[in-house]
Amino acid sequence: MAQTTVKTIQNYVGGEWIDAKTTKTEAVYNPATGEEIARVPISTQEDVDLAVQAGAEAFETWKEVAIPRRARILFKYQQLLVEHWDELAKLITIENGKNYTEAHGEVLRGIECVEFAAGAPTLTMGSQLPSIATGLESGVYRYPIGVVGGITPFNFPMMVPCWMFPLAIVTGNTFVLKPSERTPLLANRLAELFEEAGLPKGVLNVVHGAHDVVNGLLDHKDVKAISFVGSQPVAEYVYKRGTNNLKRVQALAGAKNHSIILGDANLENAAVQVLNAAFGSAGERCMACSVVAIEESVADEFIELLLEKTNELTIGNGLDEGVFLGPVIRDQHKEKTLKYIETGVEEGARLLRDGRNDEKAKDKGYFVGPTIFDEVTSEMKIWQDEIFAPVLSITRVKNLEEAVDLSNQSRFANGACIFTKDGGSVRQFRETIDAGMLGVNIGVPAPMAFFPFSGYKDSFYGDLHANGTDGVEFYTRKKVVTARWV
Ligand code: NAD
């Protein structure tokens, strides 16, 4: 029988591709086929130390490089990412499972982060007051902070790392990235292309692995800041341990996003948007729609439309033409999702569409069909927990006020959407809803790179969010100079 050997990927440290100092590896699977496509090393403290040391050494020269010169490398990087767009998108689909069109969109989101970061000369300008007292002036100057650690989730292998390292690096820091061990392949490609763009050795380092690498970064005295994106319990842990070690930490966490549909909404649009937001990327988005709160008067009509459209979706390998819904990330995640569906039934919610019955759900890829519950209440676990899979809960409400009150009971506050034609309702929603990213008649209101990614409550721990001017603030420190010329 032919023996297939799967490659163990390498770490990228000080501009060199090196084997991790470990024999422990984990399988990386293509979730659409269940096939093992690579092995990822579970790196150790020693690997972290090497990468941080490389970053600390590189920092001494990188921080001195003029900002327009740093930005020029980013411009070149942007060009390379554009040239390799299709290849990167394909890799995302292979390791993550989302369909190729969505993967293409994710590459765009990553490129936009690089484009934003390339504006560093303007973004990092200070400000001056020529006269704060007679003959006395003051000014603010911005500087990098040192080695930054980045820890990222599986669901956006390109976009989320790109929220972090381009901006951190262009502002003069060096970076150690710990990608998700479930989707580690794209990170290496991102590093290769950055090197090709002219990034000096040691400015970006990639260490693969799991908890030990995360803890290594959180405890390392030479790591000055941590950017984290992932699930709520890990975000809380990272925030507490990192800040306990007196580091700056921004930790973006889980979500349970609500969409409110009012009686006057364009129901056709609402159904298309909710379908995309609930089942796109197999529900594995922190901005996925998980709960619909709909005014009773239009609930039946909306549900009929939504079911009709959902039944037309194609489930399958995201590389195949016309496929909308790919697999979830792992078989364990599929099992967990199926348990949630069972729980929803036991809790008394009405199962309108059962994704366990779709033909593809019997495949060896990790597929779960789109699942829709009606008559869900806030006491139910399927309402409370982030399921992170194509499972949607619907709850019927009397009016906007009831919908907002209900939504605000959630421990999370990432995104929320409203579907209506009424400006007053939009205003009331904006003023009263607990969520950091709001959508009006759209399903996934994920901000572009120029704006902060802005959740709160248990969706975010920290002060400064990822992206936008928050990102610039996070990755820089300031000096205020007060001077009298005598
Ligand atoms: P995860 O928390 O399992 O993993 C995230 C990172 O933390 C990975 O690099 C992983 O190796 C590491 N990690 C996991 N467990 C750890 C532990 N016990 N100790 C130390 N490190 C640990 O998250 P995931 O499943 O990869 O990603 C999905 C989650 O990310 C969802 O909850 C989603 O909502 C969230 N997310 C949030 C945002 C946002 O902007 N708020 C964006 C994307 C994803």
From TrEMBL:
Self-association and partners: Homotetramer.
Family named by the database record: Belongs to the aldehyde dehydrogenase family. IolA subfamily.
Protein name (record): Malonate-semialdehyde dehydrogenase
HAMAP family named in the record: IolA
Residues reported to bind NAD(+): F154, K178, E181, R182, E386
Species the sequence originates in: Lederbergia citrea
Keyword tags: NAD, Oxidoreductase
Pathway(s) per entry: Polyol metabolism; myo-inositol degradation into acetyl-CoA; acetyl-CoA from myo-inositol: step 7/7
Record field: catalytic activity: 3-oxopropanoate + NAD(+) + CoA + H2O = hydrogencarbonate + acetyl-CoA + NADH + H(+); 2-methyl-3-oxopropanoate + NAD(+) + CoA + H2O = propanoyl-CoA + hydrogencarbonate + NADH + H(+)
Catalytic-site annotation from UniProt: C286 (nucleophile)
Physiological role: Catalyzes the oxidation of malonate semialdehyde (MSA) and methylmalonate semialdehyde (MMSA) into acetyl-CoA and propanoyl-CoA, respectively. Is involved in a myo-inositol catabolic pathway. Bicarbonate, and not CO2, is the end-product of the enzymatic reaction.
GO annotation terms (biological process): inositol catabolic process; L-valine catabolic process; thymine catabolic process
Gene Ontology molecular-function annotations: malonate-semialdehyde dehydrogenase (acetylating) activity; methylmalonate-semialdehyde dehydrogenase (acylating, NAD) activity
Entry EC no(s): 1.2.1.27
EC class: oxidoreductase
Domain (Aldehyde dehydrogenase) ranges: 17-481
Pfam family, one: Aldedh
UniProt keyword NAD present: yes
Gene label: iolA
